[in-house]
Specification:
Helix content is 78%, strand content 0%. It contains eight helices and no strands. It has helices spanning 3-19, 21-30, 42-62, 68-99, 106-126, 128-137, 141-170, 179-194.
Protein backbone atom coordinates (compact mmCIF):
# COMPACT_ATOMS: atom_id res chain seq x y z
CA UNK A 1 0.00 0.00 0.00
CA UNK A 2 1.35 3.45 -0.94
CA UNK A 3 1.89 6.18 1.65
CA UNK A 4 -0.93 8.29 0.15
CA UNK A 5 -3.36 5.40 0.31
CA UNK A 6 -2.37 4.68 3.90
CA UNK A 7 -2.80 8.37 4.71
CA UNK A 8 -6.29 8.39 3.16
CA UNK A 9 -7.24 5.30 5.13
CA UNK A 10 -5.83 6.88 8.30
CA UNK A 11 -7.90 10.04 7.80
CA UNK A 12 -11.04 7.92 7.33
CA UNK A 13 -10.21 6.00 10.51
CA UNK A 14 -9.78 9.25 12.46
CA UNK A 15 -13.22 10.32 11.24
CA UNK A 16 -14.59 6.98 12.40
CA UNK A 17 -12.80 7.31 15.75
CA UNK A 18 -14.45 10.67 16.38
CA UNK A 19 -17.89 9.44 15.28
CA UNK A 20 -17.79 5.92 16.75
CA UNK A 21 -14.91 5.83 19.27
CA UNK A 22 -15.88 2.47 20.80
CA UNK A 23 -15.87 0.67 17.45
CA UNK A 24 -12.42 1.94 16.45
CA UNK A 25 -10.89 1.10 19.85
CA UNK A 26 -12.38 -2.42 19.63
CA UNK A 27 -11.02 -2.88 16.10
CA UNK A 28 -7.52 -2.11 17.35
CA UNK A 29 -7.89 -4.34 20.41
CA UNK A 30 -9.32 -7.29 18.46
CA UNK A 31 -7.28 -7.01 15.26
CA UNK A 32 -5.82 -10.30 14.19
CA UNK A 33 -9.05 -12.11 14.98
CA UNK A 34 -11.03 -13.53 12.09
CA UNK A 35 -13.38 -11.03 10.47
CA UNK A 36 -11.87 -7.97 12.19
CA UNK A 37 -10.64 -5.31 9.78
CA UNK A 38 -7.13 -4.17 10.84
CA UNK A 39 -6.61 -0.58 11.98
CA UNK A 40 -3.70 1.39 10.53
CA UNK A 41 -1.06 2.44 13.10
CA UNK A 42 -1.11 5.82 11.32
CA UNK A 43 -4.31 6.56 13.24
CA UNK A 44 -2.15 7.29 16.32
CA UNK A 45 -0.25 10.03 14.48
CA UNK A 46 -3.35 11.50 12.86
CA UNK A 47 -5.31 11.60 16.13
CA UNK A 48 -2.36 13.41 17.72
CA UNK A 49 -2.24 15.94 14.86
CA UNK A 50 -6.02 16.45 15.13
CA UNK A 51 -5.68 17.21 18.84
CA UNK A 52 -2.78 19.63 18.24
CA UNK A 53 -4.47 21.57 15.43
CA UNK A 54 -7.85 21.87 17.16
CA UNK A 55 -6.30 22.92 20.48
CA UNK A 56 -4.02 25.43 18.76
CA UNK A 57 -6.99 26.98 16.94
CA UNK A 58 -8.87 27.42 20.19
CA UNK A 59 -5.72 28.81 21.81
CA UNK A 60 -5.56 31.54 19.16
CA UNK A 61 -9.08 32.68 20.14
CA UNK A 62 -7.94 32.92 23.78
CA UNK A 63 -5.61 35.71 22.67
CA UNK A 64 -8.30 37.78 20.94
CA UNK A 65 -8.66 41.28 22.31
CA UNK A 66 -4.92 41.34 22.91
CA UNK A 67 -2.15 41.65 20.32
CA UNK A 68 -1.56 39.45 17.29
CA UNK A 69 1.59 38.20 19.01
CA UNK A 70 -0.51 37.14 22.02
CA UNK A 71 -2.87 35.21 19.74
CA UNK A 72 0.03 33.36 18.11
CA UNK A 73 1.68 32.71 21.47
CA UNK A 74 -1.50 31.26 22.95
CA UNK A 75 -2.07 29.22 19.80
CA UNK A 76 1.39 27.76 20.33
CA UNK A 77 1.08 27.31 24.12
CA UNK A 78 -2.37 25.68 24.18
CA UNK A 79 -1.37 22.37 22.51
CA UNK A 80 1.84 22.31 24.58
CA UNK A 81 -0.15 22.60 27.83
CA UNK A 82 -2.75 20.05 26.72
CA UNK A 83 -0.13 17.66 25.29
CA UNK A 84 2.06 17.78 28.39
CA UNK A 85 -0.89 17.08 30.67
CA UNK A 86 -1.76 14.05 28.53
CA UNK A 87 1.85 12.76 28.36
CA UNK A 88 2.39 13.22 32.10
CA UNK A 89 -0.78 11.34 33.01
CA UNK A 90 -0.70 8.53 30.41
CA UNK A 91 1.59 6.27 32.50
CA UNK A 92 -0.76 6.83 35.45
CA UNK A 93 -3.71 5.63 33.36
CA UNK A 94 -1.86 2.46 32.37
CA UNK A 95 -0.75 1.77 35.96
CA UNK A 96 -4.24 2.42 37.40
CA UNK A 97 -5.76 0.19 34.73
CA UNK A 98 -3.33 -2.62 35.58
CA UNK A 99 -3.98 -2.26 39.33
CA UNK A 100 -7.72 -2.53 38.70
CA UNK A 101 -7.24 -5.80 36.81
CA UNK A 102 -7.17 -4.56 33.23
CA UNK A 103 -5.72 -6.80 30.54
CA UNK A 104 -5.32 -3.95 28.06
CA UNK A 105 -1.85 -3.49 26.60
CA UNK A 106 -0.12 -0.10 26.42
CA UNK A 107 -0.97 0.63 22.73
CA UNK A 108 -4.69 -0.02 23.35
CA UNK A 109 -4.66 2.13 26.49
CA UNK A 110 -2.84 4.85 24.54
CA UNK A 111 -5.39 4.68 21.71
CA UNK A 112 -8.30 4.97 24.17
CA UNK A 113 -6.66 8.04 25.74
CA UNK A 114 -5.83 9.53 22.32
CA UNK A 115 -9.40 9.12 21.08
CA UNK A 116 -10.63 10.82 24.26
CA UNK A 117 -8.15 13.70 23.98
CA UNK A 118 -8.83 14.19 20.25
CA UNK A 119 -12.57 14.23 20.86
CA UNK A 120 -12.04 16.88 23.54
CA UNK A 121 -9.89 18.94 21.16
CA UNK A 122 -12.63 18.71 18.51
CA UNK A 123 -15.14 19.96 21.10
CA UNK A 124 -12.79 22.90 21.74
CA UNK A 125 -12.71 23.62 18.00
CA UNK A 126 -16.52 23.59 17.93
CA UNK A 127 -16.47 26.15 20.78
CA UNK A 128 -14.31 28.65 18.85
CA UNK A 129 -17.36 30.67 17.61
CA UNK A 130 -18.71 30.90 21.19
CA UNK A 131 -15.42 32.18 22.56
CA UNK A 132 -14.94 34.53 19.61
CA UNK A 133 -18.47 36.00 19.86
CA UNK A 134 -18.41 36.71 23.59
CA UNK A 135 -14.83 38.00 23.56
CA UNK A 136 -15.64 40.48 20.78
CA UNK A 137 -19.18 41.37 21.87
CA UNK A 138 -18.56 41.81 25.62
CA UNK A 139 -14.84 42.54 25.80
CA UNK A 140 -14.72 42.15 29.59
CA UNK A 141 -11.74 40.14 30.90
CA UNK A 142 -13.60 38.52 33.80
CA UNK A 143 -16.50 37.56 31.53
CA UNK A 144 -14.09 36.15 28.93
CA UNK A 145 -12.45 34.02 31.63
CA UNK A 146 -15.91 32.86 32.75
CA UNK A 147 -16.85 31.84 29.17
CA UNK A 148 -13.57 29.94 28.74
CA UNK A 149 -14.12 28.10 32.03
CA UNK A 150 -17.60 27.09 30.85
CA UNK A 151 -16.13 25.85 27.55
CA UNK A 152 -13.47 23.84 29.37
CA UNK A 153 -16.12 22.34 31.68
CA UNK A 154 -18.20 21.27 28.68
CA UNK A 155 -15.14 19.81 26.97
CA UNK A 156 -14.29 17.91 30.16
CA UNK A 157 -17.79 16.42 30.33
CA UNK A 158 -17.67 15.33 26.69
CA UNK A 159 -14.24 13.74 27.25
CA UNK A 160 -15.55 11.90 30.33
CA UNK A 161 -18.44 10.52 28.30
CA UNK A 162 -16.19 9.31 25.46
CA UNK A 163 -13.60 7.82 27.83
CA UNK A 164 -16.22 5.87 29.79
CA UNK A 165 -17.85 4.59 26.59
CA UNK A 166 -14.53 3.44 25.11
CA UNK A 167 -13.34 1.72 28.28
CA UNK A 168 -16.70 -0.03 28.76
CA UNK A 169 -16.57 -1.26 25.16
CA UNK A 170 -13.05 -2.65 25.65
CA UNK A 171 -13.68 -4.29 29.04
CA UNK A 172 -17.42 -4.30 29.86
CA UNK A 173 -17.12 -6.14 33.21
CA UNK A 174 -14.33 -4.06 34.73
CA UNK A 175 -14.03 -0.92 36.83
CA UNK A 176 -12.15 1.81 35.02
CA UNK A 177 -10.17 4.75 36.41
CA UNK A 178 -12.22 7.90 35.77
CA UNK A 179 -9.80 9.44 38.28
CA UNK A 180 -7.44 9.76 35.30
CA UNK A 181 -9.66 12.39 33.69
CA UNK A 182 -9.59 14.43 36.91
CA UNK A 183 -5.81 14.19 36.90
CA UNK A 184 -5.60 15.34 33.26
CA UNK A 185 -7.94 18.23 34.08
CA UNK A 186 -5.98 19.32 37.16
CA UNK A 187 -2.57 19.16 35.47
CA UNK A 188 -3.90 20.68 32.24
CA UNK A 189 -5.50 23.60 34.13
CA UNK A 190 -2.28 24.26 36.01
CA UNK A 191 -0.25 24.22 32.79
CA UNK A 192 -2.75 26.50 31.02
CA UNK A 193 -2.40 28.92 33.95
CA UNK A 194 1.40 28.72 34.06
CA UNK A 195 1.68 29.34 30.31
CA UNK A 196 -0.52 32.44 30.57
CA UNK A 197 -3.48 31.08 28.64
CA UNK A 198 -5.97 32.30 31.26
CA UNK A 199 -4.61 35.84 31.18
CA UNK A 200 -7.10 37.96 29.30
Amino acid sequence: MSFLQELRNGVKEVGSALREPEEVALRWYEQGREGVEPLSPMVFLLLTLTAILCTATYGVTMGMGQSGAAMLQKGFNAPIAAGLSWLITLPTLYILNSLLGSKLDLPTTTLAALITVSFGALAMLASVPINWFFTVAIGNRSFTLFINLIVFSGVGMSMSNVFIRVMKALEPQRTFPTLWLGLVTAIGSELFYLLGLFEF
